[in-house]
Fold:
Amino acid sequence: MNYKLGASFNGNINMVLREEKGYTYGARTEFNGSTHSGHFRAYTAVRSDATIESINILRDEMRKYRQPVSPKDLQFTKEALIKANARRFETLAALMGVLADIARHDYPFNYISRQDRIIRKMTVGEHHRLAQEYIDPGRMIYLVVGDGESLLSGLENLGLGQPIFLDTNGRKINPQFNLCY
Structure:
């Protein structure tokens, strides 16, 4: 479900932030998980003067992605993912990676063919349901690394809540007085 949003070079956020705006060398989204929990993240590195606009673009692209994708985009995604699975067997190193995944996650030996079947069965409706469930820019934590002083007014105007400043050790600071608490 995440592929067209930002899991690939041709993902929507990379196309806007890199190709259209020229703000970054790359922007991606990804899901990470384990047997206990997981998270979704959208990330990029941009010029300081493009930070606020880039946050708005990320948020807008995630909001748009919560709407149904076109059948054409879904078909493109299916083909790209199925072809990528085939590449997982092209070299000895790639095959070792598959075997390591099987061992690490206790996957069945046919998990790639099972993934292919899931991908082939994906519908626009199911994609939409998953995007609605797992991509919610209103519930995200936005972590911005940069010059807080120059970004403060822009961050306050984003409507994401009051910015919290942290020092390099992760402690809250009051930027007016440089005090940790």
Residues 3-143 form a domain with the Cytochrome Bc1 Complex; Chain A, domain 1 fold (CATH 3.30.830.10). The first strand starts at residue 27 and ends at 33. The chain is about 50% helix and 10% strand. The chain has a mean pLDDT of 90.
